[in-house]
């Protein structure tokens, strides 16, 4: 039987008709057409489904849509400014060449955003720890870490 | 595919009653990072997930003169970012610091980690070394149990359907004590340990020998265990290389690890022998740092 989950999505209050077993990932992609958040593994191990929930990075494939009730959810689409300007992290990733196929990128950027909100000037070790749950098959991570470091100085 | 109902009761009685209902296969969902994976992997079939998220009083870190009390629904991240835990109970900080990833820690709970009862659970050896007790709801009242008598077999605790872990407590580490938790794993994150060792020890007044010690091992037996034989060797003694080696050897004999995809039993036993002295030394160095004394 369908239930309703009410939460804030990228600053807007929304309602979604969901099954009890629907994950937040499914609802973001299927109910709201926000496909920047990806399903890489479905088991919370790859980080491509990372979103911010009450400012904390979480694996949305392991959060039930009903668990998001009342929470503040931010996806990669929520980082763009009202006038379409990219977030400093997005600009840094582009400038540093930290994107190849782009599949890990939304999750990486959101993990980095959560880190920088907690710690505006992280060390390289702290950056690595923050993205340990985000796997990248393409870049070898060096540029990603450089991008996050460069965004942190702004 | 996935197919279950989901409720968020607001009292332990409501939750326990929903879980005990005979016709409905109900399971607790705390954070969900274990139970949802198990359901997706079809290792667990449930009709109903009973969330504890809206039951008040289960999510906090309190301490007084004697005890540290952690609510079962406290997230691993909350423990990791607690200044009190990092400064006063560093052995537990070690355990949560290397737990999964940030995404996991933000959602996973201490109670969930304990009740999932993986032999390799990160939080458990540290809590065993702290001689922790758990409090759980059973048949309408709160009961208490020592954590080292809580685990039955891989994935199984003494809890029955309808029982709910409420909190975990341990005595605040005394003066002249220190601890450390070491996790041996292939990656620096996102990996269960292939072996883990936790040591909490207290020096005597002269800082010359061991007044009290607890050693716990993870991923070294069907459940996390205390290495009580190793403890007997260390207690009352000075920390010489000889005694450390003797204790480490004993601990490796007490362990009952198996071969699995992470490692072999032989390697695990060898690593206990090699690494227990190292963990003891880390604990000693923390005592040195916090007291300024040569331990």
List the helices and strands and how they pair.
The complex is a heterodimer of chains A (154) and B (295).
Chain A: E1 3-9, E2 12-18, H1 24-31, E3 50-53, E4 56-59, E5 72-74, H2 88-95, H3 105-118, H4 124-130, H5 142-152
Parallel strand pairs in A: 1-5
Antiparallel strand pairs in A: 1-2, 3-4, 3-5
Helix pairs in contact in A: 2-5
Chain B: E1 5-7, H1 12-20, E2 26-29, H2 35-40, E3 48-51, E4 61-63, E5 67-71, H3 76-80, H4 83-88, H5 90-97, H6 102-105, H7 110-116, H8 123-129, E6 133-138, E7 141-146, E8 151-153, E9 156-157, E10 164-171, E11 177-184, E12 195-203, E13 210-218, E14 225-226, H9 228-234, H10 241-254, H11 265-291
Parallel strand pairs in B: 1-3, 2-3
Antiparallel strand pairs in B: 4-5, 5-10, 6-7, 6-10, 8-9, 11-12, 12-13, 13-14
Helix pairs in contact in B: 5-8, 9-10, 10-11
